[in-house]
Amino acid sequence: MTATPDHDPADEEEAPETGPLRRCIATREVGPKERMIRFVLGPERVLVPDLAGKLPGRGMWLSARGDVLEGAVSRGAFNRAARGPVTLPSDLRARIEDGLRARIRDLLGLARRAGQAVSGWQAAREWLQAGRAGLLVQASDGSPAERERFGGRHLPAVSPLTAAELGVVFGRDHAVHVVVAPGRLAEAIRVEAERLAGIAVTRPERGI
């Protein structure tokens, strides 16, 4: 979008970062901040993904979609929003993906230590049948037939990590099925998994 004398799109970014909605600097669409990624300028005006949304500085918000990120980079959206030159890391997309995967692993670890998540076919099925499940997390590289046989069609399901990555969280070689109890941790994992699915070069398959 080209600025006109009476309207500079960057002016819209000056509003305080309050409330549940944010405006994407690339598409100009307003949406829930949970579906976006915040960026700030670090030292020497290097662009920093603020995945937790807590770093100091005026945030630049972008919809958590790979095509939107690519468009923002190619069309200079960060420069316009920052009102000046911005240094973009060459591996920006990979940093975002790696950061989101790390956040998901950390959240799953918290859920496991709090007794709010279990892995493995037997334990996960018991939680599922007992109505203790709020979110189903299945390995992105798991067998589609195996994931289908597990069940849980009524549950929100995400597949952000491989079986090996899930296994590390739960202290085993691999884990295909993870059930998380209803609550804030389950919701946080779902949000991060959806942001990752939007931004990833190859979107993980969903578990069901």
TrEMBL record:
<feature type="region of interest" description="Disordered">
    <location>
        <begin position="1"/>
        <end position="20"/>
    </location>
</feature>
<dbReference type="InterPro" id="IPR037465">
    <property type="entry name" value="YlxR"/>
</dbReference>
<dbReference type="InterPro" id="IPR007393">
    <property type="entry name" value="YlxR_dom"/>
</dbReference>
<feature type="domain" description="YlxR">
    <location>
        <begin position="22"/>
        <end position="97"/>
    </location>
</feature>
<dbReference type="InterPro" id="IPR029064">
    <property type="entry name" value="Ribosomal_eL30-like_sf"/>
</dbReference>
<protein>
    <submittedName>
        <fullName>RNA-binding protein</fullName>
    </submittedName>
</protein>
<dbReference type="Pfam" id="PF04296">
    <property type="entry name" value="YlxR"/>
</dbReference>
<dbReference type="InterPro" id="IPR035931">
    <property type="entry name" value="YlxR-like_sf"/>
</dbReference>
